[in-house]
């Protein structure tokens, strides 16, 4: 998710609720803190439990109960209650009402939705409707996402879904889409510590909270991993043979210790051109030059331009310990000779006015230096800024190891991935959420379609037996 300048966060009780979408009796949202994922090949003698409960998507904490009578019912376990996981669960349940759906989340449901955009929730981006244009905003994924991914469920589909469920949206001048209330919805959440496949092809997931010595086992026909940048999601993927591209931070601000910025803290420049240069990289990538707003902070520089540069240069910056040079053009639409001419005109205009003798005494060479500084001000980046609440990672499960048309693993049938657990990350502006909505929608559609087909086959088999 994109981050920008800090904004006041609304109080929890002032936030509108997520659209109330009760998942029928088989849906459950479970909330406890748990230990990291660990694959268990051998299980204890206790019978794995089938879990079901009645829950609404906006419930804070719901309970689980053993449902032996539903042991044979098809079930989906979604690991991760973020944007991708919740969206996938709703879509799967919509297509397959008979499907038991369990969303497992160790923290709070939709926690990034709550804090994104300074508490306003940047739902998506409304300026890029074509898949090709949309894909250009993903430093990791811009090649792979140019196909059917956003055609299946793009920004307009996301906006329509929220509107249909009572969330009125607005599109700002820069394309960012927010609820008209400028408040994000919030919700809450147990977690999974192991996963394997038993002989009949069903998954068995181990759920535990070690602090209270709680352990449970859940059978599932389908599993959707939507754990974001959590190490637990990478662990589950690795257990089923997936490789993991080492995650590194993306979308961060630049720490710059330059005394010349001290008096400018809080100043926003609406349009600058910034170019990132790393000493160890000679090649100049076009994405490492960005144009847009920039904010001066007490620790350095922030704003959309800096955040986009941090995303496109995430891996290289990590490789070089976040040491880089940043060249800023504060007047990108004015040629340097025109900048000089403007300064000279200003000098001539004010030289004859009382009290402005200082301008008249400035040597022309100094004015040339000022013009050059405005066009090419070089800053030394010494570190990345620190954000405790909100960040994005570059890395995760390679897109080559899943089918983007279904979000299914190429290594394990009926295992699906969606969201930031994959090696996909976007620039600031709602693009990371759109990746979550689209991936969740496709994964949910795949599971719902498979479950419906299998249910139809079972019904036909029963009819044949009765006949």
TrEMBL record:
SUPFAM superfamilies: FAD/NAD(P)-binding domain, HI0933 insert domain-like. Residues 76-445 form the RsdA/BaiN/AoA(So)-like Rossmann fold-like domain. It comes from the Eukaryota. Pfam families: HI0933_like (PF03486), HI0933_like_1st (PF22780). InterPro entries: BaiN-like, BaiN-like_dom_sf, FAD/NAD-bd_sf, RsdA/BaiN/AoA(So)-like_dom, RsdA/BaiN/AoA(So)_Rossmann. Residues 248-351 form the RsdA/BaiN/AoA(So)-like insert domain. Its cofactor is FAD. The keyword Oxidoreductase does not apply. This is FAD-dependent oxidoreductase 2 FAD binding domain-containing protein. It comes from Leersia perrieri.
